[in-house]
Amino acid sequence: MLNSRDSGALRQVPERGRRENIRAYGASDITAAVRRPQASKQNRKAIPMHPDKTAQKKKKKIVDFSIPQKFDFSFFLIVLILLTFGLIMLFSATYASAKVSAYQDSYYFINRQLLFALGGLAAMIVISFIDYHILFTKVVLKTAIIVSAGLMLLVRVMGSTVNGAERWIAIGPITIQPSEILKFVTILVIADYMQRNYDNMKSLTKGFIPIMIRIAIACGLVVIQPHLSATLIILVISICMLYIGGAKGTHVAGVLVLIGIAAVMVFTVFPMLGFDYVSARMLSLKDPEADIRGDTYQTYQSLIALGSGGMFGQGLGNSHQKYSYLPFAENDFIFSVIVEELGFVGAVVVILLFLLLIIRGFYIAASAPDKEGMLLCAGIVIQIGIQAFLNIAVASNAFFNTGVSLPFFSYGGTALLMQLGEMGIVLNISRKASI
User: Fold this and answer.
1) In angstroms, rounded to a whole number, what is the distance separating the alpha carbons of residues 58 and 63?
2) Nearest C-alpha neighbor of 95 from the set 86, 85, 83, 108
3) What integer pLDDT is reported at residue 165 of this predicted model?
């Protein structure tokens, strides 16, 4: 039964106001509920929101050309400079050898590399608009694993053999190097596993061992070629990602100890078992002049090129070692040609460009919006960094010859396409990063 005070309060609310109050219960705007006359603070908090406007989530666009946030232009510019510099030096290193080779065309290498560069640039720009989260979907991830593993096994069946190693698949005039694809897929698999099991990465059985099994399988697919440089690169990338992703320090240290033991076995036991190429590479590292007409020939010629460069080099296009003296001047030892033609200054410029790329890439990774982006970006940047470091170290005889190419400089279509595609992924991550 209402007393006089209650009835007076009701009379103060007109009929139209009460209808508005009822509608406010279904409104999505909280201010509508706040404006209701006679509504207490407690009642306003209890008002349910309309599910159609507040609980409804917007679907993520896989491809978004609206550019809500521009990608990292600094990183993009560094990539363009490296690519342009690389094409110039590749032409300089190959025009003479290509003319006297079976191709009889000075522009053979540069023309093919230009096609791959244009295709890679187009892929990089398009990929920069595609949400990188699509890579972590089951369909894409499983497809990538099956295709990369299948290509690696196919190399053993129909691969092209060069210098005793089967690393390429020839399809007409085009050759594919599956190990370049496997490097990226390994990064993707590690990033996916670690972001899904981040809370278990400190655990040996639930986090560390399962991911090490995946890494061992990837390395095993490369070892059977044999491809020592790719195996080493995958191992270094994996260890760095494990450390960045939160794995226990003692577990990572244990892996490093095992790798050290394996390295000792490779360079002591393997030569006794008939793996002569291991002994030859160790001989080149210890004494480049020990067999300059045989096993140490490449390293010896590379050091001559480096020494001939001086401070400012012989001038662009004026290398002498590229005239059939230095083997693989278009690939493994292109850094030697750079130093001979551009000198110490040119070498410093190349190293600084790669350092800027790595530093900016890590900055993007640190600013990524989630663990997937951080781990994926870090893995890609580590791959580029370790390949550049190994190539320069081999050319300088600071590391034994592993046959690793210099990113953006060395000749190779598969490698260049994959590298530029990976740069597109980094740029896409930068769009969403808090830079």
Assistant:
1) 14
2) 108
3) 63
CB-CB contact of 427 with 75 (8 Å): yes
Distance, CA of 201 to CA of 262 (rounded, Å): 25
**Do the Cβ atoms of 13 and 37 come closer than 8 Å?**
yes
> Is 404:231 a contact under the CB 8 Å cutoff?
no
- What are residue 225's phi and psi, to 5 degrees? -75, -45
21, HSE (Cβ side, Cα atoms, 13 Å): 13
Structure tokens given for 34:
């706040």
pLDDT at 30: 40
Residues 115/174, Cβ–Cβ less than 8 Å: no
Judge if pTM exceeds 0.70. yes
Name the pairing type of β-strands 159-162 and 174-176. Answer: unpaired
Contacts with 210 (C-beta within 8 Å, 6 or more apart), sequence order? 193, 197
Rounded-to-integer distance, Cα 337 and Cα 316, Å: 10
pLDDT in tens, 139-182: 999 999 999 999 998 888 877 766 556 678 877 777 888 999 99
User: Nearest to residue 136, comparing CAs of 427, 364, 370?
Assistant: 370
At 26, list the tokens: 């279904």
- Reported as type and span, the H/E element at residue 165 is strand 165-171
**Would you list the domain boundaries of the chain?**
4-54, 73-432
Instruction: Classify residue 47 by its DSSP letter.
Output: P
Q: Residue 27's pLDDT is what?
A: 41
Structure tokens at 196: 């899904």
- What sign does the dihedral 427-428-429-434 (CA atoms) show? positive
Q: Tokens 């020592």 — which residue? A: 228
pLDDT digits over 5-33, tens only?
Answer: 444 444 444 444 444 443 444 444 444 44
Query: Is 281 in contact with 271 (CB distance < 8 Å)?
Result: no
- All residues at 6 or more sequence positions from 209 whose CB lies less than 8 Å from its CB, including other chains: none
Q: Closest Cα partner for 321 from 297, 287, 345?
A: 297
Alpha carbon of 422 to those of 20, 71, 236, 359, 410: distances in Å?
56, 14, 18, 16, 17
Q: What is the DSSP letter of 204?
A: I
Which regions of the chain are under pLDDT 50?
1-58
393 Cβ partners below 8 Å, 6+ apart?
Answer: 399
